[in-house]
Task: structure prediction
Amino acid sequence: MTHSFPMELLKSVRTPFYYYDTQLLDQTLDILRDMSNYPGFRVHYAIKANANPVILSHILNAGLGVDAVSGGEIQAALNAGFAPDKIVFAGVGKRDDEIELALNHGIECLNVESEAELEVIESIAAAMGVKAPVALRVNPNIDAHTHSYITTGLAENKFGISIEMLEAIVKRCVASPHIDLRGLHFHIGSQITQSDPFRMLCNVVNNLQDHYNAQGIYFPIINVGGGLGIDYDHPDTNPVPDFRTYFSMFHKHLRLRPGQELHFELGRSIVAQCGSLITKVLYVKQGLNKRFVIVDAGMTDLIRPALYQAHHTIQNLTSASGETAVYDVVGPICESSDVFGKDEQLPVTTRGDLLALRSAGAYGEIMASRYNCRELPASVCS
Result:
């Protein structure tokens, strides 16, 4: 079944812009809540995926927390109405003022990426006369089988503390009067479409818990991050990810202790399918060997294809032709990488047609730039 777009609304807005289907977002959130309804399970929304205020209002109403990776994201979450004690602060390079902001507001937890960072947090907490709630981000050296730019759990990546270095840092936390060790944090990558990496992560967590419990060290929180992928190729067939399999696998394979919480940080899987980038065809250009559809959106509006070699389903919303043709769909930016799709089979397309680049609700609007002095894309919701 093809997604139904509010065409009168879309035709009234200057392109390019993002369109968000809030009904699909609410449906996704409802299914997420139902499928994650296990004892101790708590879901935080990875706000880096999309910080649009309307999107955040729906996520707030669904009762989720927030995973932030900058002071700006913490502030965006606070401005949207999220309670400080439902915000966690991750990120490999936290500035001193961002740490102070987090501690001043009493956020739930800071996820620590290195001993050097722990030293700074400890020093700032001591100067402020507070005890900093922290979780230690562990690098489990697991291959997530995703794009190299969004793989974060290998030993060669910049993220987290190696298991070999963890014990000394755990003991330092336990001994510190200015650190409240709340848990262990993991995140192995993004757009993960296989179950094996998550199952391997469960085994790592189980072994680490056994090791530290034997020493009398217990963690109130285990945070397994996010990473659940979506179906970019079939957005209408699979508009909502398989949350049932995802959460049931952690329930089955990860051995929580009594009273322990299991936290998740999901972004893409919540918001990607509800968003589309709407763009207008400027020209259809016949080259020597190729036919190009040149649209008014570019890599400044949606950088994923240029940055990650990602592909978004492209849909012509206005062509009435019953025939199809093959095109390369490209933007106006002065970069050869400004390409949305090659050899795309579309209905015969002409100047003025509206195209939708589907599954663009995550890492789309939030990553837009003003390169070439272009305006940032607007957004509309229905």
The chain is about 30% helix and 25% strand.
